[in-house]
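Long-time lurker. I teach an intro course on protein structure, and each term I like to show students one example going from raw sequence to a predicted 3D structure in token notation. This year I'd like something fresh instead of my usual example. Would anyone be willing to generate the tokens for the chain below so I can use it in lecture? Attribution to the forum is fine with me.
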Amino acid sequence: MKNEAQTKINSFLQAWKDLDFKKMYALTNKTWKTKHSKSDLKKLITVRIKSFEIKSIEPISTTMFDADIIVIAGGHRKKIKARMLCESEAYKPSIDGEFGINPISLTRNLY
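-- Reply from a regular --
Happy to contribute to a lecture. Here you go:
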């Protein structure tokens, strides 16, 4: 599970660095997508990251992981956290589902 979470957050951060909102949106968690559009994501994430380093990924539960990340954004080094949920469908956590990133979690220490 941790390897899958690592792959997802790495892909999301690379898409963010490239400002590829289509890919970023595809990597968000299923529950978030039920209430938000790609344009909502663009409004939420308004700064581009220049670089990133994933420092650690820790399980919160069998279907939830947090990643501690260092990003360079707007000329500043910021420590942010990404929450990743494994869901079979919206509002249904499952170890048999797929990971997605909650983008709101990324913005807490960013601005």
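Some talking points for your students: The chain has a mean pLDDT of 95. Residues 29 and 100 are 4 Å apart (CA to CA).
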